[in-house]
Each structure stands twice: as C-alpha cells, then as structure tokens.
Amino acid sequence: MKIVNSLKSIKKRDRNCKVIKRRGRIYVINKTKPRFKARQG
User: Fold this and answer.
1) How many angstroms separate the CA atoms of 30 and 11, rounded?
2) Which of 6, 17, 37, 39 is deepest in the core (most CB within 10 A)?
3) Largest Cα–Cα distance of the chain, in whole Å?
4) Whole-structure pTM value
C-alpha cells in the first residue's frame, strides 16, 4: 500500500479504483488490481 499526499493521480490509474473514507482516512482500493491500493498520508 502506497501512502501519498494526493490521491487524484492514483484514482486515474485504473477505472476500477474507488475512493473510500474509513476511520477518518481516505483510501483508494481496487478489487481487480490490488497493487493500486493507496492511503492518503
């Protein structure tokens, strides 16, 4: 999982990427390609 300042570029990498807010943190998850997982730092 990558920790980045901005999730905008990561969201555009694949069309299955979804931005989800959990416990006050913002995550990008991708069920088909888990290597695109990221968290906003």
Assistant:
1) 9
2) 17
3) 25
4) 0.78
